[in-house]
């Protein structure tokens, strides 16, 4: 977008902008925000006279506060785009907003660039809901659908580019103005009568409460934006009839590409909810299928960006909270499929969990709360249920295990574990093995830690795309197993793919466990050499 498209009709004199430094800048920003919100409370319809004020504030800093860009873009968007019902007109307005925000934030850190897309996602979501309520067989509606899918893919591409850059602003507040809350910023877009729930329509329940409890950092808001665009794209793919296996592959590839702790944290918190907030886009049956896809992507894959070595900038308490939330959703997923008769999938989740880093991380934290003389009575190979029972025991002894945002699940966990013990002892299910099923795991650790970051990103992306495009999954069950194969000779393989290398490709066999208890084999082209492929057999 050209500079002319960003500048207001009446630009501020340069000497006036030059005076906005230090405390003068803070005072000007605070006063301008107070004046703006006072008029919003009074339901003033025309706020265009604030545009030049926030343009000055935006231009006065190389890396302006999020508020200045947020308000300037919001007021400019409203002044240029009066409310219209035509889908294509609204689509064009959403594209203009995306270009405006990305242009205004070009000198900002990656997390701020992504966080500023929140209004774009809000506008696109409203378009998708409106379009899904129309007859998609009509030519004009089909064109609008293509435009929406193209825009969402463009937003995802922009986010991936941002995620590829070093981010030094993740833990910064929403801006230098400490008096501005996110709830107030939302009013720029939806008025004074609506709240965060309306502005973040793909989040719900405790996830919204977590965001509403106080100020949070730019990185967390960026993670929320990524999660919403991620869910929106999955919903569009569901409505387009994309096969579930392809959706799973896309989800895994996207999570690996984003490499965002805060996005993954938001995704896990979304899975803690009983119902995903996609009911306005998908049927209840598709909502269940989407949850299953997300369970597979979150539980069966161990992502290297979550390892302690890679997540060194994340506070230990934050890592602990995520670990506890992951433990809960893994346990709930296991019980869900076990109760539905899909024992293979339940066992695959248990095996994936037990062979991940998560149990040892949780045990390490728990053991640090216990006096050395006590016996640990837990092992790193323990199941999710065994670990939860151990942690609940620690809480009964006065040790705070679950943070406030997920403590509401404690009572439910106690009841669920008690019920599960009555129905089936943990050892009965957890001692079983998946019959010749291979868990789909990806390890995108680079073999050379000193490799240039850009080359690593390119090779990782190319490697996953190559693997995803060569994946052929049968939809109607797996092939017949060879007869005569004895049960004791069957194996479980955990294949780790190093997506940061671009060596000659080799083929690895993987099997996904289907919802109906049958299995379907897939052939994945692994873009690394045999010696770089780590295979564990049990």
Automatic annotation (TrEMBL):
Source taxon at top rank: Eukaryota
Residue stretches of biased makeup (Acidic residues): 518-538
Sequence segments annotated as region (Disordered): 508-538
PANTHER family in the record: OS01G0600300 PROTEIN, SUBSTRATE CARRIER FAMILY PROTEIN
Name this protein carries in UniProt: Uncharacterized protein
Organism annotation: Carya illinoinensis (Pecan)
């Amino acid at each position: 977008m050209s500079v002319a498209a960003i500048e207001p009709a009446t630009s501020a004199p340069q000497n006036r902008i030059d005076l906005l430094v230090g405390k003068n800048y803070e005072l000007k920003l605070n006063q301008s925000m107070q004046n703006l919100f006072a008029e919003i409370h009074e339901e003033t319809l025309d706020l265009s006279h604030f545009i030049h004020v926030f343009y000055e504030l935006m231009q006065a800093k190389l890396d302006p506060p999020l508020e200045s860009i947020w308000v300037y873009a919001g007021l400019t968007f409203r002044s240029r785009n009066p409310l219209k019902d035509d889908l294509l007109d609204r689509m064009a307005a959403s594209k203009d907003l995306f270009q405006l925000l990305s242009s205004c934030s070009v000198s900002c850190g990656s997390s701020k660039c992504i966080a500023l897309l929140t209004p774009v996602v809000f506008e696109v979501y409203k378009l998708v809901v409106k379009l899904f309520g129309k007859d998609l067989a009509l030519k004009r509606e089909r064109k609008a659908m293509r435009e929406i899918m193209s825009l969402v893919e463009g937003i995802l591409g922009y986010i991936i580019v941002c995620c590829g850059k070093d981010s030094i602003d993740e833990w910064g507040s929403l801006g230098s103005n400490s008096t501005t809350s996110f709830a107030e910023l939302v009013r720029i877009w939806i008025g004074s009568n609506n709240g965060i729930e309306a502005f973040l329509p793909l989040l719900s329940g405790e996830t919204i409460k977590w965001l509403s409890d106080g100020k949070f950092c730019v990185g967390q808001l960026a993670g929320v934006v990524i999660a919403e665009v991620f869910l929106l794209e999955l919903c569009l793919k569901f409505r387009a009839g994309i096969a579930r296996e392809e959706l799973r592959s896309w989800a895994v590839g996207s999570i690996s590409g984003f490499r965002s702790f805060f996005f993954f944290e938001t995704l896990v918190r979304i899975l803690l909810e009983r119902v995903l907030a996609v009911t306005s886009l998908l049927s209840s049956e598709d909502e269940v299928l989407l949850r299953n896809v997300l369970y597979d992507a979150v539980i069966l894959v161990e992502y290297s960006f979550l390892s302690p070595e890679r997540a060194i900038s994340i506070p230990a308490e934050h890592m602990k909270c995520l670990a506890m939330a992951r433990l809960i959703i893994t346990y709930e997923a296991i019980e869900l499929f076990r109760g539905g008769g899909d024992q293979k999938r339940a066992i695959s989740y248990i095996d994936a969990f037990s062979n991940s880093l998560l149990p040892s991380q949780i045990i390490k934290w728990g053991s640090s709360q216990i006096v050395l003389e006590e016996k640990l009575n837990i092992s790193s190979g323990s199941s999710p249920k065994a670990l939860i029972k151990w942690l609940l025991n620690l809480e009964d002894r006065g040790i705070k295990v679950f943070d406030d945002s997920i403590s509401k699940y404690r009572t439910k966990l106690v009841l669920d574990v008690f019920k599960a013990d009555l129905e089936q002892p943990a050892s009965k299910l957890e001692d079983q093995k998946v019959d010749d099923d291979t868990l789909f795991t990806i390890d995108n650790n680079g073999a050379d830690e000193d490799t240039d970051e850009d080359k690593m990103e390119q090779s990782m992306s190319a490697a996953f795309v190559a693997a995803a495009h060569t994946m052929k999954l049968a939809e109607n069950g797996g092939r017949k197993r060879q007869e005569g194969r004895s049960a004791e000779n069957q194996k479980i393989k955990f294949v780790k793919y190093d997506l940061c290398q671009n060596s000659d490709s080799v083929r690895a066999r993987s099997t996904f466990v289907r919802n109906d208890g049958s299995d379907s084999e897939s052939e994945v082209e692994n873009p690394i050499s045999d010696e770089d492929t780590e295979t564990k057999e049990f």
